[in-house]
Design brief:
- By secondary structure, the protein is an alpha/beta fold.
- It has helices spanning 53-69, 102-113, 139-144, 165-177, 193-198, 227-243, 259-262, 265-274, 279-296, 326-333, 368-373, 383-386, 404-411, 414-428, 431-436, 438-447, and strands spanning 3-4, 12-13, 18-24, 29-33, 38-41, 46-50, 73-80, 88-94, 119-123, 125-126, 129-130, 146-150, 156-160, 181-188, 248-252, 300-304, 318-321, 338-340, 351-352, 362-365, 389-396.
- The strands form six sheets. An eight-stranded parallel β-barrel has the order 8-9-14-15-16-17-18-21, surrounded by six helices.
- Helix 2 (102-113) packs parallel to helix 4 (165-177).
- Bound molecules: acetamide.
């Protein structure tokens, strides 16, 4: 029996590979949802059989991989493959700190589709920018999309970027064709300085501020008692819900200082009227209110794990556990669905993958093997709580990465490695087998012109 190595399965055991019989690609491709996972490449036809839509999408990923390996042709062969261990297999891209062009995004999305990722979490707003239009709020483009940088000689430089509605629609369709669902994110109530630069009336002080040009966590946050803010959030969520046909909208929730809320009369009134004991409970109130707008437009909210620092929020909110796994522990104990993306558990791809002086990256070390070692099943939890874990995602943040191309270099190979962890799960994953396929990963990336960090894996 001959074998072909591919990404994302220990080894494709091919029952009938004739390497001397190569056929042109693309051919007529038939996709069938049925009771087996099998790719059949015969002389005149390709049949992609899968037990569900995710499986068929991965089968398509396999034939794209093979066509790269075989220089545009495909070997006549037939092979089976596994179903995914987790139903949520995501990747997050920060397009705010540095703008990522549509073309750069599509390159990354296409590469992710080769290995079974099925959710693209698109970080569209933050202190340093707001990157999509909301009808009636033209200052988002005029003001919030641009930040000014002063160099050592006090010379002014501009960093600007904005997606039009047509860009969002295009990315949505592009993802859909690859079996990927987009999750757009609006940061609330913190990480909102770019919005407040254009609309100071949505904040607590009403002061005019600039779009933020430093990295970190900032005190200017949304004002829960501003009626104009709630009108705006309704319009922004409505707009996203009308563009993206996936089930989720991400509402942020992380790193929100409460200092401006403490003595704010409007915030105090809400607290009094709703029996909220402190500003942590006020943030919980805020989360549930944003979640109810998301629901009004037919979607479900996801929030970073700070949303469960509040003692009670809407149970339908899905919680993304990024500050380690404590968020997952708390959220699952309270009945929330959970997605894992621990910053120090192999999921933050902006962290440097080795201590070599030439590495790009930020904050701390995250070696490729960490992405394989993450136990997504969280064996420590009892069965009922484990069943609430939907899966995991990798995140790439852009403070220290200046373009989509630099992001690529950070994302790969670690995202490929996490993808295999997500698809195969604890029972099937096998680090030694994956390491043997390192060359294939390099080859596919090289042929696809995807930057892939060649560094050490463990
Ligand atoms: C995050 O990294 N602040 C979610």
């Amino acid at each position: 029996m001959k074998t072909i190595d591919c990404l994302l399965t220990p080894r494709i055991e091919s029952e009938n590979v004739k390497f001397d019989t190569l056929i042109g690609y693309p051919l007529d491709v038939e996709k069938v949802i049925c009771d087996e996972n099998r790719v059949v490449i015969s002389k005149d036809k390709i049949v992609l059989k899968g037990k569900g839509k995710d499986e068929v999408a991965l089968a398509e990923g396999y034939i794209k991989q093979l066509s790269l390996i075989f220089d545009g042709s495909l070997p006549v062969c037939s092979f089976s493959y596994y179903s995914p261990a987790y139903r949520y297999r995501g990747f997050h891209i920060d397009c705010v700190r540095h703008f990522v062009t549509r073309e750069e995004l599509l390159r990354i999305i296409d590469a992710m589709s080769l290995v079974g990722f099925n959710y693209f979490h698109w970080h569209l707003t933050d202190d340093q920018g707001w990157r999509f239009p909301v009808p009636g709020y033209d200052k988002l483009k005029e003001i919030s999309s641009t930040r000014y940088i002063y160099d050592n000689n006090d010379q002014k430089h501009v960093h600007q970027g904005f997606y039009e509605r047509e860009d969002l629609e295009y990315v949505n369709e592009y993802c859909k064709e690859r079996g990927i669902t987009v999750i757009p994110e609006i940061e609330t109530p913190g990480h909102a300085e770019a919005l407040l630069a254009a609309y100071p009336e949505f904040g607590c002080t009403g002061n005019k501020i600039d779009v933020q040009n430093n990295w970190g966590v900032f005190e200017n946050v949304m004002n829960p008692s501003s009626g104009e803010l709630w009108e705006f959030l309704d319009a922004a969520i409505k707009e996203l819900a009308s563009i993206f046909d996936g089930p989720f909208i991400h509402i942020g929730g992380d790193e929100c200082p409460h200092v401006q809320w403490e003595d704010h009369p409007g915030c105090r009134l809400i607290m009094e009227e709703n029996g909220l004991k402190n500003t942590s409970e006020l943030q919980g109130w805020f989360t549930s209110r944003v979640s109810s707008i998301v629901k009004k437009y037919g979607k479900r909210a996801i929030g970073w794990d700070e949303v469960v620092d509040a003692p009670e929020i809407d149970k339908d909110v899905v919680v993304m556990s990024w500050r380690g796994l404590n968020g997952a522990r708390t959220a699952s104990s309270r009945g929330h669905n959970v997605i894992l993306c621990p910053e120090n558990g192999g999921c933050y791809m902006d962290r440097y993958p080795s201590k070599e002086s030439w590495e790009l990256g930020n904050l701390s070390l995250s070696i490729p093997k960490d992405s394989y070692d993450l136990d997504i099943s969280m064996k420590e939890l009892e069965e009922e709580r484990r069943s609430l874990i939907l899966g995991a995602q990798c995140c790439v943040w852009g403070e220290k990465l200046h373009s989509g191309r630099e992001m690529e270099f950070m994302i790969f190979p670690r995202a490929y490695i996490l993808a295999e962890n997500l698809w195969l799960g604890e029972e099937r994953k096998d680090w030694e087998s994956l390491k043997k396929r390192k060359d294939i990963l390099g080859l596919i990336s090289w042929k696809k012109d995807i930057l892939c960090n060649p560094g050490k894996w463990e």
